[in-house]
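Lab meeting minutes (informal)
Scribe: AK
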Amino acid sequence: MNAQATSHIPHSPSRTVRITRLRDEHDRFPGILDDSVFQRLYENAFVIHNGDIRDLVAAYALWTIIDQDGRLYTHEYMVDIYAALMPTSVILAGKDIIVSPNGWIFPHEYSDARRAFDAQSINLLDSRLTQATKISLSIDAVIFADGETCGVNTKRLDQTIVARRDAAISLAANARDALTRGEPAVSSENLFAQSNEKSSEAFWRGHLGGQLSREPDKEPYLRYLESLPRPPAFYASRSTD
C-alpha cells in the first residue's frame, strides 16, 4: 500500500560509516521512537554508526517525501560542532546517531522531554508520511574531525560552516561599530536573509542578524558570535566509493 511507503537504506557517504534501520537495532536503542504514536517515524528512522578512528563533526540529512498528488516535500537537517563554544562531537569514533524525518536524535541524550517534543511536533509530518507514495533519505555529507568531507555534498556543508562563521564575525564587528556611533546594532539589510542558500554569507547575516536584533542585551550574543570556533581546512574525500 502507498500508505506504507518507507525509505530505502541510504547510501553511506563513507566506507567507515554504516547505516542501518533503527528497527533492526532495537535491542541497542530500546525506548527510542518505539511508542505507537511514533510508528511512521520509527519505520523511517536510521542509525548512523561511525566506524572510523576519527570523530564525525558535521552531517547533513535530506529527506524527500512525495504524496499521492505528486507534491514534493523536503526536510533538511544539518548538525555540526562549530555553532557551539564547548568542544564536542556529532558522532564520536565508534558511536552512533539516529536520524528520522523529524531530525537528529543523540541516543545518550534521549529523554522524556525530547519524547514529548517529538509527540507534539509530528502531527503534520506524520500525516505526510502516512500519505506518502515515496520517502527517501540522503546523507548528503559528513565531515570528519580532520576536515575530510565525504558524500555528494550537494548542500555544500563545508562551505555552509565557513560562511556562518565569516558572517558571525563580520556581523559582530559591524554591530559594535554601529553601537559605538549610537546606531542600531543591526542594519536593515541584515534583519532578513538575503539568500536562501545556507552556503552563503548573505543567508547567515540575515539569520544571525535577526537573532541579534531580538536580543534585549546584545553583549552576550555578540561575544558568542565573536567566539565561534574556527573550523579546520576542509578537503574533499579522495575515496572512490
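Next up, CB showed the second protein from the same session:
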Amino acid sequence: MNPFIVFIKTLSKTNKPIKMSSSKSLYGIKIDSLQGESIDFSSFKGKKILFVNVASKCGFTPQYKDLQKLYDQYQDSLVVIGVPCNQFGKQEPGTSNEIEEFCQVNYGVSFLITEKVDVKGKEQHPLYAWLTSKTENGRKKSLSFAKSFMKRSLTNN
C-alpha cells in the first residue's frame, strides 16, 4: 500500500492527544533548517508532522514531488519536514546550498528541509534519537530509510 495514502487517512482521524508518560518532549530538540535557521517545533503544535529522510541521489528522490503535493494540499493541518542524510549509500553528498537548489529547481519544494544529519550510529541527531526511542517519545517508532510518521497532533509535554 502507498505510504502517502496511509498517512493521508490519518489526517481525518481524531486529534486526541496520546498520553506519553515519562517521555521527553520534541519541543526541546534543536535542529536547523538548510538556511541555518533554528526550527522551533513548538510552532507546529496542533498539526501533524511528517518527518521524511530524503536524499538527492536515491531511488526515492522523486518522492519530493509527491511530498510537495501533500504539503500543498494539507499545509493547514500538516507539516512536512525533509531530513537529508548521507548515511545510506552516500546518496546525499551535497552541501546545504546544493540540496536546497536541487529541491527547488527539480521539484519546486517549498516545505521545510532541515540541515543534513545522521539518523543512526554514534553521531545520531537528537531528533532521530527521539523518533526511534520509546524512552524518549513514549511510543517507539521504527527507523526506516524512508519515513517516520508522527500520526498524531503534538501536545504540551
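CB comment: The chain has one domain: 26-150.
No objections, moving on.
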